[in-house]
Amino acid sequence: MRFRSSKVNEFRLWGLALTMGGMLLMIIGLAGVVFDWGKAGRIVAVIFMIIGMISMLVSMGIYFWAGMLSTSAIALDCPECGRRTKMLGKTDRCMFCKTILTVDPQYQHTAENETAAGHAVPLEPNRDHEHKPH
Ligand SMILES: [Zn+2]
């Protein structure tokens, strides 16, 4: 799997970008209603508004889903920059320095060609939360 940023950040970025795109389409659609563009203009405006609304709803879903995912992510201190980051799955990147963090020893071999962007750091997942009673 190829990813440049940490997964949580990536999902958030895409969710936000799509929300902005959807809002822009809705604004274009609204402009078509406000300014009289004739019959054809109104049809185009309505289409823009519908597309904008759908993409906004979908992207908001993605954004909230990213929020849900980040709560289930493993929190750990990055061994490279020492800051607290969140990790999704067995392999992810640090949110701050983009170092590849992995708990999967198999990943070391496939990560050889990733050294230009940062090297993989094997680590144990933080299991602090398992000691707390639910
Ligand atoms: Zn880091």
Automatic annotation (TrEMBL):
InterPro entries: UPF0295. The chain crosses the membrane at residues 12-37, 43-66. It holds the Pfam family DUF2614. It comes from the Bacteria. Keywords: Cell membrane, Cell projection, Cilium, Flagellum, Membrane, Transmembrane, Transmembrane helix. This is Flagellar basal body-associated protein FliL. The lineage of its organism: Bacteria, Bacillati, Bacillota, Bacilli, Bacillales.
